[in-house]
Amino acid sequence: MAKLNAVRRPLGLWLVALFVYAFLYVPLIIVVVYSFNDSQLNAEWVGFTLDWYRKLFNDDEMLRAAGNSLMIALVASAVSTLLGTMAGFAMHRYKLKLLPLLVLTPIAIPEILVGVSLLIFFVMLNITLGLVSITLAHIAFCIGFVAIVVRSRLSGMDESLTEAARDCGATPMQAFRLVTLPLIMPGVVAGALMAFTLSIDDFVITFFTAGANASTLPLQIYSMIKIAVTPEVNAVSTLLMGLTLLLIIIASKLAPNALRSS
Amino acid sequence: MNKPVSKSADRGRLARWLISGPPLFYLLLFFAIPSLIMVFASVRYAGDYGGLAPVFDEAGKLNLTLENFQRFTSDFIYTAIFLKSLMYAVITTCCCLLMAYPLALLIARSPKKYRDLLILLVILPFWSNFLIRVYAWMIILGPQSGLTQAVNYVLGLVGIEPVRLLFTAFSVIVGLVYVHLPFMVLPLYANLEKHDPALVDAAQDLGASAWQRFWRITFPLSLPGVYAGAALVFIPALGIFAVSDILGGTGSDMIGNVIKQQFLETRDWPFGSVLSIVLTVAALIAAGIAVLVARPRRETHG
Lengths: 262, 302
Prior knowledge:
Chain A: Keywords: Cell membrane, Membrane, Transmembrane, Transmembrane helix, Transport. Chain A: It is a multi-pass membrane protein. The structure holds 2 protein chains of 2 kinds. Chain A is mainly α. Chain A has helices spanning about 10-35, 50-55, 60-95, 100-110, 110-125, 130-155, 160-165, 170-200, 205-210, 215-225, 230-255, 260. In chain B, about 75% of the residues lie in helices and about 0% in strands. Chains A and B meet through α1, α3, α4, α5 and α6 of A and α1, α3, α4, α5 and α9 of B.
């Protein structure tokens, strides 16, 4: 422990850090490696194969679940980006009390609570559990994340630019559309990608709002893990990781600071 | 372009409502109202086929009860599970702190150009699917894995019976630490990065040892980051059910697992709501404590 603050000789720190980085990455690397392993068991390396991926693309249930996930994520990220941008803008611009509270609490409380309360709510209103209820739920928890990213982008923005546009005779709407919006656009896009990723990855809230007939990729993965673990799970996991990584790279190119400051 | 003040004020109010109204309405409808309904559900009877019994009985009398709360306080099983969840969450928070602190410190003291990359490397695994990250530990801790066999080989050398790693309290804690670690690193890093290195240098010039510099300068200054990280780990760890579901054996159930069972298997929604309310209260208390202790104090130097 004494080495913790060895500013000039951080060898001890480096060792701990290396251990933590290994702890973070080894599990994921194992999943990727075993997705190419020619064995039923996730135990020893037998040989290279693409069979698990082939099997995956012939698995109708899995493909349907992937399609559902994609559709839900597209709709949920579009709507939550619109509403979240409005919320972020309103929180930046006006002194509000209720909206910040409603934006932040869904992020701050355990997810299961959002899931079960929405389950009761949908059943009480006779809304059939399925794709629609999942999408409505996803929008609700994504709004907050988009709002935070957009607000942080706005607070980093030079206010005088909008004022200059107003001084030049732009209406508030024109100033917003021609000056503010293009400036916060990277934040909006980063928020949208974040919402998309959160939606496509969500398990807990989806689990409670899905009902018996609709499945998504995470729900499908969950039932595979619970029933029988085959390397097919590794293959779908690897693909999903690749997709997420791609979205993160795009998001970080568009708004280098947006993701970190949230 | 001179307009009467009242008219532009009206317009401002209209714009404010047009912008904040839709998200406010959505969150009220799909977050606030369902939460209130859950509170209301906790004082109702369970329906004959699951769900909720009607609010009014056949005679038109209000059909509400506090029985569900009494069940929680009188049945020791549920308090025990709740206490166990608290313990798991506390252990998880401590492990995360022990692992995250050195890492955050190292990143904060790295040259500026590497910091973004090093912190991105912490966030990246966190963006892959939560279930996949939990599932990966099923492979690593499984009975046929290299790790399990190595551990049991070493134990065998000193004459100890082989142990099982998967489906134990140990595997649940490992999974909980794994999925929550980034939540601890980020606030710690954000705090440590802002420290003025001159403070540590000054302490060193005055003859403080490395140990003293850490405990008397760096650590006290980093407490707000510690509290924020602790809250960000403790609260979700308390309510989680998938980790104990996948990596836990019999008897590893946490409060989240019981809530899940009440809603989807037993279908006793009122009791499930009671458990959810207990969990919410615990989460709010934890968040409240974190906010109170992390409140910025007056600068003591200068």
